[in-house]
Amino acid sequence: MWHKGELFDISRDVWQSFSSKQLLKNEGVLEIEDLLAMQWFYCHLSSNFVVMLAVDLRVGYQLASDMLNTPVEGISGEDEQDAMIELMNCICGRLDRDHPANDCFELPRLLQPMEISLLLNKLHRLSDVTASIEEQWFYISLFEAEAAAKMDGSV
Fold first, then answer.
1. CATH level 3 topology of 4-152
2. If 0-12 CB within 10 Å is exposed, 13-18 middle and 19+ buried, where does residue 103 land?
3. d(CA 96, CA 121)
4. pLDDT score, position 5
5. Mean pLDDT of each 10-residue bin along the chain, 155 residues long
6. How many CB atoms are located within 10 Å of the residue 125 CB?
7. What pLDDT, on a 0 to 100 scale, did the predictor assign at position 103?
8. Most exposed: 12, 21, 101, 138, by fewest CB within 10 Å?
9. Closest CA to 91 of 138, 125, 29
10. Alpha-carbon span 52 to 92, nearest angstrom
């Protein structure tokens, strides 16, 4: 089973492989309004686990800027989403699975606003980490996938 330290360490290592900005663990508590205002990405890690990542939009633009070596002003919304999906893909690729990676692993996807609160209310959270990048939120959480499968018909 994963623990907060492992989830944070992997997230930080992957983030810092792409960006010069520091990802710092933050013990702050995010209010539901904060969570709903963030941009969310979702990935089935395996048949049993789902990973969700939420960031302030500015975090995504900073990551895309660092990855593409382009000023933030030159980053498109598509560039930002691609960068965040790549980050999520790399994080999920480093997390241990309960069976081989080619079984049930899906590419991460951006969640629509209506999906977020539904998923957060239905999924059973196993581990989560709140962090920040220059005072911008970064939140990642591991959930049991069974509830997600019932909601979206997958797995």
1. Chemotaxis protein chec (3.40.1550)
2. exposed
3. 25
4. 76
5. 74 94 85 82 83 91 95 96 94 72 71 80 84 90 68 47
6. 11
7. 56
8. 101
9. 138
10. 10
